[in-house]
Amino acid sequence: MKQALKRFFDGDLWYSFSHSPIVILSAVVTLLIILAAIFAPWIAPHNPFDLAAIDIMDSNLPPAWNEFDGDIRFLLGTDDQGRDILSTILYGARISLLVGFASVAFSVVLGVGLGLVSGYVGGRTDTFIMRIADVQLSFPAILIALLIDGVARGIFPRELHDELAVYVLIFAIGISGWVQYARTVRGATMVEKGKEYVQAARVIGIRPGTILFRHILPNVTGPVLVIGTIHLALAIITEATLSFLGVGVPPTTPSLGTLIRIGNDYLFSGEWWITIFPGVALILLVLAVNLLGDWLRDALNPKLR
C-alpha cells in the first residue's frame, strides 16, 4: 500500500495535478460541493422536505442582507413556497449529483459492455451494435431523454410519476449517453485483441469472457475515465434542463434545475435570488467538473507528456 502511494505521488499524474492551480481549485470546488450535498441534512439551516417547518408567509423573502425585507433565518432568501434557498441548493445538489453519477454509471456499464463485445466478436454483432449507435447519434441526447420520459409517463399510472421520476430520469440520461463509451471501447478492443498477450490467452484456452474482462478491459479504462468525467457534467446539465422544462424531478423535490425553473417565473418581478443562486451553484459545479475532465484527458494522453 505504501509503495503504491509512493508510486502515485512520484508519477506524472500527480505532478501534473500539483502543478496546475486551476485544476487544484476545480478539485477543491467539486469536493466541497459533493461534501456539502452529502452532509446536507446536518449542515443545511432548514429541511425543505419538512412541510411542518415551511411557512407560506415566508415565501419570496430576499437575501438576509436586504435592509428592508431580509430575514437572518434565510441567508439567501426563500422561494415561492417559503423554502430556504441555501437549504434547497444543498438538497438540490444531492439530487443533481445522484442523477449525474447514477446515469453515468449506467452509461459506462452499458457502453463498455457493448463496446467490448462489438470489438472482440466483430462480424454481424459488431455491425448490429454500431448501426444502433449510429442511429442514436443522429438524435440529440436531450431529445432521446424527453422521448423516454414521455413514454414512461404514458406507461406508468399518474400516481407513480413523482415516485419514479428520479429513476426514469437516470435511465433516460443514461441510455442517451452509452454510445461514446461503446465506440471508444470498441476501437481500443479491436487494437488490443490483436496483441500477443490476447493471442497467448486464446492459445492456452482462456474463455472469451475472461479475456475481455480480465485482460482487455483494464487496458481500455483510461479513455473511459476521461469520457465519464466529462459526461458527468453533461448529465448534470441534462438533468437541470429536463427539470427546467418540467419533465424531470417533480416541483416538490428541489433539484438545481427545478429551482431555476421556479425562479424563472419570478425573475422579472424582482425575486432574482430564487434562480440566480441555484444557477451559480450549477455553473460552479459543471465548470469545475469540466475543468477536471479536460485536465484528465491531457494528463492521460501520452502524446502531450
Automatic annotation (TrEMBL):
It comes from Cohaesibacter marisflavi. This is Peptide/nickel transport system permease protein. InterPro entries: BP-dependent_transpt_permease, MetI-like, MetI-like_sf, OppC_N. It is a multi-pass membrane protein. The chain crosses the membrane at residues 21-44, 95-121, 133-152, 164-181, 224-247, 272-296. Belongs to the binding-protein-dependent transport system permease family. One of its GO terms (biological process) is transmembrane transport. Keywords: Cell membrane, Membrane, Transmembrane, Transmembrane helix, Transport. The keyword Iron does not apply.
